[in-house]
């Protein structure tokens, strides 16, 4: 089921959009806390975003840029601002389409379906899916955020997927904390030092579902290493 994330501060409009999206069989989530936009985005992992321009704190152009740092999912702007410059700015900042208010909900749904087809369905490039593997039996599908072993699979968040890919690419070698912080956040100097620990704890819980919790080792004062299993080691 495709997931649609609605970032709109008009409660009436967001509620109506959610109703129509769910009517067509999609899963929808409406952002409620504008202090946690990217946190909510990463937890929901949407396939498409409906985004307003005029938002509290930062505008939609800003949030579109932030989304583009971590995702290529379609972003459709819906805004009362109808100038050509606003539309140009939306597209220049990574949007896929721009609709002006007032709008017809059926047109919005048609654009959603069209964008999903281009990104994931019959109109997509149908390129071969990328797969990352390591000798211990883990396989990562970064485009779907799926990590699997021979017997099971788990769904990861965007950042968990980035972390495990970095470790898998250097299996058996230490990946420094600074390298991982640089990978996950553009300016990690403003990130609490415990944040990476929290993400690694979550990743270990996912690995536990694959009976591979002990694969990640902490190298005190250095970073983390994905331990290479000796032949016959569980």
Structural class: alpha/beta
- Number of DSSP helical runs: 8
| Overall average residue pLDDT | 87
Radius of gyration: 20 Å
Estimated helix fraction? 25-40%
Report the order of strands and helices.
Answer: EHEHEHEHEHEEEEHEHHEE
Into which percentage range does the β-strand content fall?
15-25%
Uncertain runs with pLDDT below 50, 5 residues or more?
none
Measure the end-to-end span.
Answer: 35 Å
**Main sheet properties:** 5 strands, parallel
Shape: elongated
Could you give the order of strands across the largest sheet? 2-1-3-4-5
* Strand elements, count: 12
Provide an overview of this structure.
- The protein has a 5-stranded parallel beta sheet with strand order 2-1-3-4-5, sandwiched between helices.
- Helix 6 packs across helix 8 (194-209).
- A hairpin with a 5-residue loop joins strand 6 (132-133) and strand 7.
- It contains 8 helices and 12 strands.
- It is an alpha/beta fold and 234 residues long.
- It has helices at residues 11-23, 37-44, 60-70, 84-92, 105-120, 158-169, 177-184, 194-209; strands at 3-7, 27-30, 48-51, 75-79, 97-100, 132-133, 139-141, 146-148, 153-155, 175-176, 216-219, 223-226.
In a few lines, what is going on in this structure?
40% of the residues lie in helices and 18% in strands.
List the helices and strands and how they pair.
Blueprint: E1 3-7, H1 11-23, E2 27-30, H2 37-44, E3 48-51, H3 60-70, E4 75-79, H4 84-92, E5 97-100, H5 105-120, E6 132-133, E7 139-141, E8 146-148, E9 153-155, H6 158-169, E10 175-176, H7 177-184, H8 194-209, E11 216-219, E12 223-226
Parallel strand pairs: 1-2, 1-3, 3-4, 4-5
Antiparallel strand pairs: 6-7, 7-8, 8-9, 10-12, 11-12
Helix pairs in contact: 6-8
């Amino acid at each position: 089921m495709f997931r649609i994330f609605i970032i709109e501060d008009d409660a009436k409009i967001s509620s109506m959009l959610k109703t129509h999206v769910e009517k067509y069989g999609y899963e929808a989530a409406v952002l409620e806390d504008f202090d946690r936009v990217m946190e909510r985005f990463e937890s929901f992992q949407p396939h498409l975003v409906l985004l307003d321009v005029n938002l509290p704190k930062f505008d939609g152009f800003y949030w579109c840029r932030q989304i583009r740092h971590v995702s290529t999912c379609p972003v459709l702007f819906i805004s009362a601002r109808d100038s050509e410059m606003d539309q140009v700015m939306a597209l220049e900042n990574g949007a896929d389409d721009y609709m002006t208010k007032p709008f017809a909900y059926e047109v919005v749904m048609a654009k959603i379906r069209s964008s999903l087809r281009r990104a994931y369905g019959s109109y997509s490039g149908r390129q071969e899916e990328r797969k990352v593997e390591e000798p211990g039996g883990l396989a990562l599908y970064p485009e779907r955020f799926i990590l699997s072993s021979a017997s099971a699979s788990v769904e990861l968040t965007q950042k968990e997927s980035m972390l495990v890919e970095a470790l898998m690419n250097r299996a058996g070698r230490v990946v420094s904390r600074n390298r991982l912080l640089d990978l996950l956040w553009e300016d990690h100097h403003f990130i609490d030092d415990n944040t990476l620990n929290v993400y690694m704890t979550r990743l270990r819980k996912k690995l536990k579902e694959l009976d591979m919790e002990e694969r990640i080792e902490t190298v005190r004062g250095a970073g983390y290493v994905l331990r290479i299993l000796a032949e016959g080691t569980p």
